[in-house]
Write a structure and sequence with these properties.
Layout (H helix, E strand, L loop, with lengths): L2 H13 L11 E9 L4 E5 L12 H10 L6 E10 L11 H10 L6 E5 L5 E5 H4 L10
Parallel strand pairs: 3-4
Antiparallel strand pairs: 1-2, 1-3, 4-5
Bound molecules: tetrahydrodeoxyuridine.
Length: 138
């Protein structure tokens, strides 16, 4: 993936931090999901007083995208930190990895993690979900 595209996704994910609703953990997360056609769908984490209904930033982005007709994706960028301060990588939780497995080719889909200091790292989904269960297993 081109550096310019990675930087655009980092920018879009970063812009989501202001919308993060995280009154319980204080941990703000933003995500930017790049669809096959080039459209970027953004998301933030949305917490809940009952805790379990909390939705991660990545799933917000995926559910926004799928609910608008997108089904094929290239990459997702995730940024997060305490009170939105970006200090280290925020890897996707297991539930979000499973949602990625539903819509993405684990060999091709890229997970981009940034620190907010201008650096980033990229993992193919297959490395984050070895022997993952997906639609092909049914
Ligand atoms: N969170 C995400 O949004 N994405 C992840 O993959 C890691 C965790 C959110 C959920 C919760 O609102 C907060 O971070 C602390 O777990």
């Amino acid at each position: 993936m081109e550096k310019e595209m990675v930087e655009a996704l980092i920018e879009a994910a970063s812009a989501q931090l202001q919308y993060s609703y995280a009154p319980y953990s204080g941990f703000k997360v933003g995500a930017a999901l790049l669809a096959q056609d080039g459209t970027v769908y953004t998301g933030c984490n949305i917490e809940n007083a009952a805790f379990t209904p909390t939705n991660c930033a990545e799933r917000t982005a995926f559910f926004k995208a799928v609910s608008q007709g997108a089904r094929e994706f290239q990459a997702i960028c995730i940024l997060g930190g305490p009170d939105g301060k970006l200090e280290s990588y925020t890897p996707p939780c297991g539930v979000c990895r499973q949602v990625m497995m539903e819509f993405c080719d684990p060999e091709k889909f890229l997970v981009i993690l940034g620190t907010g200091k201008g650096d980033w790292t990229v993992y193919p989904l297959k490395d984050l979900m070895p022997m993952g269960f997906g639609p092909d297993n049914l």
